[in-house]
Write a structure and sequence with these properties.
Pdz3 Domain, Neutral Protease, domain 2, eight-stranded mixed beta sheet, 31 strands, alpha+beta, single chain, globular, 26% helix, Immunoglobulin-like
Amino acid sequence: MRCSPRPRSATTRATVGEACETTTKKRGRVIKPVLFSVSLAAAALFPAAVRSAAVTETLILDATDAPRQVWHAALHVPLAAGGEVTLVFPKWKPGNHGPTGQVGNLGMLRATASGATVPWTRDANDLWTFHFAVPANATSIDLTYDLYEGAPSGGDMSAHIGVLDWNQVVFAPQGAAMRDVMVAATIVLPTGWTEATALPLATPAPAFTMPSGTVRFAPVTLETLIDSPLYCGDEERVVPLTSANGMTSEVDLFGESASDIDPTAAQVDRWKDLVTQADRLFGARHWTHYHFLVSLSDTIPPNGVEHHQSSADRVPERYLSDPDIYRAMADLLPHEFTHSWNGKYRRPAGLITETFQQPQNTEGLWVYEGLTDYYGVVLAQRSGLAEPGQFEDTLASNYAELDAEPGHRTRSLGDTAKMQVINRVTPGSYAFFYERRGSDYYPEGVLLWLDADTIIRTRSHGARSLDTFAQRFFGGPDVPGTVIGYTRADLIAALQATEPYDWATFFRTRVDDVLPHPELGGITRGGWRLVYSPDRTDWQIREERNGGSLDATYSLGASIGSSGNVPFTIEGMPLARAGIGAGTRILGVDGLTFSVARLRLAIAAAQHSQAPISLIVDDRGVVRSVDVPYHGGERYPRLVRNPALPDMLAAITAPKGSR
């Protein structure tokens, strides 16, 4: 079914129809940035989540310097009384699960009240908190400030694209709940730029003439504003997807050039299939107009962040034209889309807070992210975004990498979720991830929920599955914007209603206990076996080609770059035993200058020799010879069919209904 995008500002944007015949839309504008106040009746995007508003702020964002990676902001905050006023800059960024609010990017902060300059000081104990000495008779305070995306923690802009997270450009009264603060936002765009966001436009149109290039949004809660990122740029293409019961979805593409944002008809069909498959999985929509916001740029780092009615996806410039990149990122859009149900509509109770300053309890991320990662790869397969066999390759890779971690034998899956904050603020090296463990609630969560899925399918003889649970737990009525918390007890009760089983013990042993090896039950019960082969799968060949590296993780104990750089070594594996650590560079192999091809040949030759692999290395300035006694050949994980059991993985990834 073809649908149209939601109503926009006066100038419409180009859309991609079913035949994918379109031109990229540019809008020419002459802009004179101005600041003005807007008075509107409070109207929330998420009415069910809104209480009586304590304050309505007016935010004017001048984006005309976006090509220079700078936002200019002006914020008007009504006050009940003067005196010392404390405002806070959002600290805990939704979707990051950590105190990553980019206060370090804030500059040129000035404040006025009743026409006088207001001095301010930063709190000594909380750097996201600011104190303002406001005159006693003041009824409001006005702030102006700049946000510099070029700072080390930023980088979400290029000369042609701006990615705006509203938490970067807004303050709120200290202690005010995010649902008690309303914000009326306006953005002034550079000449020729357009924007896309899930925020609703202000209606009715203002009586006065708006400056050219200005887009004005309806007042929403601070929670909704920060949950609704905005993409803008001078090359945009809109791809309408599906419509049902007044609920629409679209892909908003922003590229460095028009050629970057030219999807094929087949790609558009796969995106439509993704929405259809998600509808059939969950049975309800918790959004009104969903936007897949996608930037295609080699300047903006790849990433994906979930939001209730949109996802903020960042991919390389050749995402649509390079099959390797497109397939390698096949689960990005499905993952972030799944979060609208798991993570936004329903959320672990510890991740629900009253303000963006309160710490989050991240111990439920093995559900929030782990289950989402599972359905991300499943929906990628069901919708055709992933190529055949990619699900099996992902499972093999997840298991093998987790099993190679020494840290897996000392820390539980649950502890990796609790430690998420540390992972965000002190990410460490690759070697540290193997020793300390990183965000393993993603890949190990996939194995855990595959295990649960195959248990339900086996015990019910195929009558029920994890899909049954997902529809009951995350489906419900079509209620946009509602947030419902859950606990482990809620999960257990819902799974028990789906298929009677000792789910309490299931989670205790897999989440709380330290396991010597990752859970393999879902793979074996699903009719497959994990093996290590000297032959690479197509997916592994593509991964190595994309990175220009040799993945010797399961042979030598490291992935080695095209220039010989060794980003990590795994304790107990051959390179680490030979004394090679992270930061080393391999200069030579068996008397010849290093290349990936020569090292591959040396690993193969060592299988038929007693001699060690001879390396010349630059160990952070010290050049030395190293002998590596390894004779096991190349080893790559893969799944092979067990014909004695039904292929349950095929049943899991089969599309629901006909395409």
